[in-house]
Amino acid sequence: MTYVVVLLGSLRAASVNRQLAGLALQVAPEGVVPVLFDRLGELPFYNEDIDNDDAAEPVTALRQEAARADAVLVVTPEYNGSIPGVLKNAIDWLSRPYGNSALKGKPLAVIGAALGSYGGTWAHEETRKSFAIAGSRVFESTKLSVPLKSLNGMHPREHGELVEKIRDAVTQLAAGAQ
Ligand SMILES: Cc1cc2nc3c(=O)[nH]c(=O)nc-3n(C[C@H](O)[C@H](O)[C@H](O)COP(=O)(O)O)c2cc1C
Questions:
Q1: Which H helix or E strand runs over 132?
Q2: Whose CA is nearest to atom 19 of ligand 1?
Q3: Residue 51 C-alpha to ligand 1 middle, in angstroms?
């Protein structure tokens, strides 16, 4: 069994990226178990003064999930041409302890959707860069940046080709995690 922790860069209840993450959970191939860690909004802002043995419970929970995962799938929109703050904050927490973080060598892929015609590629590239610097083994060629316009106002599950692309992304990530 390959356990994939899913991190979501939007806190919005009706988030399209949440819908994509939900699809990833549904279409994962047999033997792959993706689980959404839906608590990024509970993390305090990263601060070295509170990054110690008494770190907040959501921080410990995030690090434990990352540690027990075989791989990480990040699903995120783009905010102002870059990584949404809630996700960047999670990266900062996950990047420590320096040199020995839960992300060290962890296979990781980034996908997502955004309003612009490039579907959030800037954010996705920067998310890859940031996780790589944090120590993850980033899958640079597993890419999916979905412009919202391409959904024509429908739920992503209505788009068969998109569902297949999500399945492919999860499959590639899980295969590379072996
Ligand atoms: C603060 C903010 C900044 C945004 N900046 C961008 C941007 O730089 N590029 C883009 O394509 N969309 C941008 N958007 C639009 C988002 O891509 C769009 O709202 C998307 O649906 C958010 O993802 P979600 O549906 O998963 O919450 C921005 C939205 C917000 C709220």
A1: helix 121-133
A2: 115
A3: 30
Question: Could you tell me the two tokens for 1?
Answer: 């069994």
pLDDT tens across the length of the chain (178 residues)? 999 999 999 999 999 999 999 999 999 999 999 999 999 999 999 999 999 999 999 999 999 999 999 999 999 999 999 999 999 999 999 999 998 899 999 999 999 999 999 999 999 999 999 999 999 999 999 999 999 999 999 999 999 999 999 999 999 999 999 8
pTM of the model: 0.98
Q: Which residues pair with 113 in a beta bridge?
A: 146
Ligand 1 shell residues, CB under 6 Å: 10, 12, 15-17, 77-81, 114-116, 120, 148
State the closest ligand 1 atom to the C-alpha of 16, by its place in the atom list counted from 1. 25
Laid out side by side, the sheet with 2-8 consists of 32-37, 2-8, 71-75, 107-114, 137-147
Buried b (16+ CB within 10 A) or exposed e, 29-48: eeebebebbebbeebeebee
Cα–Cα distance for residue pair 83/35, rounded to 1 Å: 22
